[in-house]
């Protein structure tokens, strides 16, 4: 077969950064254009898969793969009509078998690149590549990643001080011009940035916020903007645009002197505030013409925000949004807030702060105060990325506001880079949960429920400095799955796992079947050995990895004991009408279901109820016995995974085989620690024995 990729003139990329350079001996694959990237993927991919060089030509021979847009290529136009392309949108693609071979077409070059990756995926997963008539369009427009890997090093980073390239604690993109990594900082483009870009583009990620939401204002300074521009230039051919996290009080930061405001000038409606942000945005846009906008964590976990100056989240978000609206930029305003003055139950706080703003009657008679270029960015659940949470009640209830869902790809609370936990089943569960009032969560996010035209899904990313980018080999599956689900949230987590295993490990039936099976049960096992039946957030504070159910902090809503409410009567947090009544934030049918201990799904039980130790469970066991059983099941699953992985030795290369084996064995130890620490602590309250049919706990 041959490859035909035609370049069009109109897609020449912007190169603003005069001194864009490459690390010595690296980045020879820095791409000039999107179609060149597509061509490169095909030569590399087909060459590798077919084990022979595949020529690139300008006119097709039989069996050719033809890639492009109607504008870029007369051959594409010959096979694909404008009408064919009419319904697939900006990012969509068509893959068609034609007399001369295969045509991959998009309305845009990036659509053609996405189609190219999809075609390679078919080949790589041994799917048929004849008789193709594929038309794909993403369900969600903005498929973004946020990076705050810097925070706790919970994914694939080298721990600080162990030779990570990065000055900023091992985040993937290196901005630091000093220290060990000096000389390897942006605008130097390291190979791994391109590797990461290809990985992201291969699953349709089209935007990233590059810095921690606990934001350092340095990212708005001219020196950093120049570095960001270099990164933007490098990622642009892959369809990935940049955004930056901001600190609400940056205008008062001395680094911007003489352009520095006083606290009094942080009035979000004031001219000083708005023109300050407009100036920053214009500087960014001058360097990065397609700059997305800002991600904001305000009045949350010590970050400043409009409330410090007498305004609410609507005022603050709209103030920044108004400043950047003339530039076509967007604000992603996070809703991860939990001010203790709002309510005793932390879970109730976000909706209490944001809900009334969504509902507020406006002077023009419409409802909802948030500006059109504001997204509220809301975690999937009401607490904080636990292995299982109920859905966040704001999904469906914010009818007049653009809502983005935020999922944590990096495994902060889900095993970090030690545990194999495949998270696609969790995201599938979330996106397919019925709100009982506004359709499924996925319908809310993709805009069909409330008719929003701009839609977004955000993953907190897990790319770091590790050779394989994610640390645990299986963490790559989470990035892959996030991208696939962001593109189409109706996909089945198991099908995605099947693709990933074939692309990553083997197409041989036995490993495919076995590894997919391991992955599919891994998240439920994690829930079971960490926090079964809905007992939330039992993590020790130091690293959010291991258990500490007895821990009590000055901030009670960070304390495991605040969540578990263990006493001699039972375990769990009563959020029904007899308790905090958090359930009332859901649509009535869901509130009724969750609010009743007999109808709440057992796997969410302790999120909503203080469950008596002797409560009769659906299995017939009493709650205490069921609880211990779940912990034990979780650990046993990990033992099973470790043993099962051993059977795959003949199919897996030695290095990756042993790296995964070592991680599984650490996971088994740590899972047992979760079980033992938790059960022994609960036992002090239940006063009951460990049931014998659970076998010995270590
Ligand atoms: O889960 C918590 C993390 C913080 C994070 C915060 C947030 C970056 O422990 O590291 O802050 O969530 O989402 O803002």
TrEMBL record:
Catalytic activity, reaction form: Hydrolysis of (1->2)-alpha-D-(4-O-methyl)glucuronosyl links in the main chain of hardwood xylans
GO MF, one example: alpha-glucuronidase activity
Keywords annotated in UniProt: Carbohydrate metabolism, Glycosidase, Hydrolase, Polysaccharide degradation, Signal, Xylan degradation
Alpha glucuronidase N-terminal domain span: 1-118
The keyword Hydrolase is assigned to this record: yes
Domain Glycosyl hydrolase family 67 C-terminal: 470-691
Subunit structure: Homodimer.
Lineage: Bacteria, Bacillati, Actinomycetota, Actinomycetes, Pseudonocardiales
Entry EC number(s): 3.2.1.131
Keyword Hydrolase: yes
Similarity field: Belongs to the glycosyl hydrolase 67 family.
Organism per entry: Kibdelosporangium banguiense
Domain Glycosyl hydrolase family 67 catalytic: 123-468
Residue ranges of the TM segments: none
Name of the protein in question: Xylan alpha-1,2-glucuronidase
